[in-house]
Design goal:
This protein has about 625 residues and is of the alpha+beta class. It has a domain at about 1-70 and about 580-615. Helix content is about 45%, strand content about 20%. It has 13 helices and 22 strands. It starts with 5 loop residues before the first helix and ends with a helix.
């Protein structure tokens, strides 16, 4: 049976409960601009009724606050985390595509590009049809040719720098993933310490969810939280939870334990023009590779790898047709011409999912100048089992990445300069300079030591076909394989002496003013198919078309996924966000309830005063 003063106990419970409600509302208002904070509510229920052995049976004991919890909807959290990787992917991709696009812009006034410089070079070549060219006219042409080669060097250097930027960002995001995993594991421990004692770690849970929000934009994240139960009685909840975070199905955090990723620099380049030291990602604990190229992978990290390594699925591929102790011979499915070669001189070739380091290669060309086969010299000798097991197997260098990334655009530029230079030089090789000496190559490749590749070991005719049936070139020979957009240049001899440029096949006697070669070279501007089935002047249009398609696609997808993200965010905020008007109403409501409870205490006080002091016996 309750005591005489039981009414004060009931009124006191109301005072305590609504004090908690007011404090919770004050906390919500103070965190209204705190990133990641979710609205908290004080949960109340009627106090346990007491039996009073009267006709009415029981009497209420007031109100109690059972908990203060955050208002969070797991469904919308999951939907948000599922959508964010796509937002991060296309946001990053669009950013880099815009930068790539800027390199190919042709503003004839302020920023002359390919079309302007290409036309200018041929405009300066045209006067040489008159008298073979005066010294000033020759110098003007050579100067314009230097500007043309500088354009390719500048663009490729810029793309190479972008590739390094992608690589640096990859490392930064891997560090963010590792840091996030460590923080989540630490928060899991703190949360369980509090909740195993019966509390509710709302702020810590908000911090953990915010980290997941940030990580979900980098890589696909899935979260699984399960209660810790008594092993002898699975229905008994002990208060803590197991919290598992996975990246694309691979465990990153397992409650208190976490794994980290590491960036490992490649020993060899995959592509001839790759920047040095590109990273591969591996799990630190096992050394196994992190498969960023899986079909289900997405996010900012995937976009960076796509742009850094994307080759439009045009990496070297072929079938093994011959195996010896120290070499493998491969019939190519791609890169069947010298112009299309992009593999590094030394690198790694993958056969039957095993990597073999090669130290060089030899390419056998058929009568049409196409590559009939490659023979790769291996760093380590093969055993008998490998010799028999590799025959007829598929081989590849690098991954087939169906994205037009930086390696793709670098390869396209290199293919163009090889096609153009080989044909231009073929005309030059037919003639003599003004000194009467046989003309060498006008367009050359600069070596890193300051010397030049003049392509004397590989003669190409004006149709782009290598002269001589079954010619052989190697990864170190003086051939057009050595020419890329990065080292494209005009021969130093021609730069120093304008007489060293052939305009005719013969300049003896009265033939000094002949210009038969100039007439042929002028056709290279728009009358000879050189690049992707079109003429040389269409190069920029081809490249710009590639970029425009990719850019437009990224813009459309980014807009779509951003709208989805905005819708989900609004849904989340409608449930867990702090609304100023709602909190103001709650504050008034709880204040009135508190005042009413205080009035009840005052009323009970007057009643007890009457009972004790004014009731006589």
């Amino acid at each position: 049976m309750p005591s005489t003063f039981y009414g004060l106990t009931i009124a006191g419970s109301a005072l305590n409960t609504f004090q908690v409600a007011v404090n919770t509302t004050a906390n919500n208002i103070s965190n209204i601009q705190t990133k990641g904070y979710t609205k908290q509510v004080a949960n109340r229920q009627a106090g346990e009724a007491l039996r009073v052995y009267q006709k009415f049976g029981t009497t209420g004991s007031g109100v109690v606050t059972t908990s203060v919890t955050s208002v969070r909807n797991a469904y919308y959290d999951m939907k948000y985390w599922e959508n964010q990787p796509a937002v991060g992917h296309y946001e990053t991709k669009l950013n880099y595509l815009n930068q790539i696009e800027n390199y190919f812009i042709d503003d004839s006034k302020d920023n002359p590009g390919f079309s302007t410089l290409f036309s200018s070079m041929f405009n300066q070549l045209n006067p040489l049809t008159g008298t073979g060219g005066t010294e000033n006219q020759r110098k003007a042409f050579i100067s314009s040719a230097q500007m043309f080669t500088s354009y390719f060097k500048d663009v490729s250097t810029g793309l190479n720098r972008l590739q390094k930027d992608c690589n640096d960002e990859i490392r930064a995001y891997v560090d963010s993933i590792n840091s996030g995993a460590e923080k989540i594991a630490a928060l899991n421990k703190q949360i369980n310490i509090i909740e195993l004692e019966g509390g509710r770690a709302n702020e810590l849970r908000d911090q953990r969810a915010l980290i997941i929000d940030e990580l979900s934009k980098i890589v696909p994240i899935t979260v699984e939280e399960t209660p810790v139960t008594n092993s002898n009685d699975p229905d008994t909840y002990l208060g803590g939870t197991n919290y598992i975070v996975k990246i694309d199905g691979q465990t990153l955090v397992s409650t208190y334990d976490y794994r980290t990723l590491s960036c490992v620099s490649r020993e060899h380049r995959v592509n001839q023009t790759d920047a040095d030291g590109l990273y591969d990602i591996k799990w630190s604990d096992t050394g196994m590779g992190f498969n960023v190229y899986s079909d289900s992978m997405d996010g900012t990290l995937k976009a960076l790898f796509d742009l850094r390594d994307g080759n439009n699925a045009e990496n070297f591929r072929g079938k093994v047709t011959g195996v010896s102790v120290s070499a493998v011979t491969i019939s190519p499915e791609t890169m069947d011409s010298v112009e299309a070669m992009t593999m590094a001189a030394e690198g790694v070739i993958t056969i039957r999912n095993k990597e073999y380091k090669y130290t060089g290669f030899t390419a056998e060309l058929d009568a049409d100048g196409k590559v009939a086969s490659y023979t790769f010299q291996l760093e380590d000798n093969l055993d008998a089992a490998e010799i028999s097991g590799l025959q007829g197997k598929n081989a590849a260098i690098g991954r087939s990445i169906d994205v037009m990334g930086i390696p793709y655009y670098m390869a396209q530029m290199s293919e163009f300069v090889r096609a153009f230079s080989s044909r231009f030089n073929a005309y030059q090789h037919q003639g003599v300079d003004l000194n009467g000496d046989p003309m060498g190559s006008f367009f050359i490749a600069n070596k890193f030591d300051g010397t030049e590749y003049d392509f004397s070991e590989q003669t190409v005719n004006t149709d782009g076909v290598t002269d001589g049936a079954n010619s052989t070139i190697t990864s170190t020979s003086n051939t057009y394989y050595q020419l890329t957009a990065l080292n494209f240049a005009v021969a130093d001899a021609s730069v120093r002496d304008s007489n060293i440029f052939a305009t005719a096949t013969d300049v003896e006697g009265d033939k000094v003013d002949r210009h038969d070669l100039v007439d042929l070279m002028l056709k290279l501007e728009n009358k000879v198919n050189l690049f992707r089935g079109g003429t040389a002047e269409g190069f920029l249009q081809c490249i710009y078309s590639d970029i425009s398609i990719d850019t437009e696609e990224s813009e459309n997808f980014l807009e779509s996924f951003s709208e989805i993200a905005s819708t989900i965010t609004n849904q989340r905020l409608s449930i867990s966000g702090v609304d100023e008007d709602e909190e103001a109403l709650d504050l008034l409501k709880f204040q009135n309830a508190y005042n009413l409870a205080a009035r009840m205490v005052q009323c009970m006080t007057e009643m007890y005063d009457k009972l004790i002091n004014q009731t006589g016996v």
